């Protein structure tokens, strides 16, 4: 079933068309890559989908509803979660607190229960704590539970950011350069993790990545952006041999 359908999306900054008549389709449980040279408009597309920017024109249809221009927290509630190119954790909070914040999107108690500290508040908080621990175990971060997020090694901060995104129970997970700054071993582990998450949580995943081994290794379909426009779309082997794509990367290895 179709999950996300983007029609003729446009966004300019001053006189510059960062995204121009952009179209994309993602079905449930698909793993899609968005690639392109620096400045091609990839992050702008992510910022449009997640409500950071309002589209100038076009539609972003998610589960049949146009979500273009809605605020980020509403888009998150509708089932889209993301990570950022430069990791954005709550640096001064613990690992556990970072995940608990995401779980407070759907608190299992009422406002009066929280204000008057009713039993349902304590029960709800316990449920949140237990779920946070389940997420940390899944991402092999449980032993770091009480550590401050910014003190974690880089690869673990990336994993924590993905755990926090998943704790909002998305149906579409958007990853902006998840392998940036990782060594080849960490990248291999990340590829394994991305495949596992997609299968276990029946997720659709859209990722931007400059690491071609990761994109070609995990994505089923790839969209290639250049100067804000899609210049190619297809399976990894089709993209690898596409003349326009090779030209856009000007001899870079695809
Ligand atoms: N907030 C903004 N204000 C002005 N220009 C912007 C803004 N955001 C992006 N741009 C411009 O839009 C174009 C597309 O940028 P974008 O960050 O989306 O590209 P990208 O494909 O994600 O690049 P990279 O791979 O380097 O991250 C660039 O020319 C960029 O300078």
From TrEMBL:
UniProt superkingdom: Bacteria
Keywords annotated in UniProt: ATP-binding, Nucleotide-binding, Transport
GO annotation, biological process: D-alanine transmembrane transport; L-alanine transport; L-isoleucine import across plasma membrane; L-valine import across plasma membrane
Record CDD domains: ABC_Mj1267_LivG_branched (cd03219)
GO cellular component terms attached to this protein's record: plasma membrane
Claim: Transmembrane is one of the keywords in the record: no
Transmembrane segments: none
All residue ranges annotated as the ABC transporter domain in the record: 4-252
Pfam family, one: ABC_tran
Gene Ontology MF annotations: ATP binding; ATP hydrolysis activity; L-isoleucine transmembrane transporter activity; L-phenylalanine transmembrane transporter activity; L-valine transmembrane transporter activity
Matches recorded under PROSITE patterns: ABC_TRANSPORTER_2
PANTHER family linked to this entry: AMINO ACID ABC TRANSPORTER ATP-BINDING PROTEIN, CONSERVED COMPONENT OF ABC TRANSPORTER FOR NATURAL AMINO ACIDS-RELATED
Name this polypeptide is given: Amino acid/amide ABC transporter ATP-binding protein 1, HAAT family
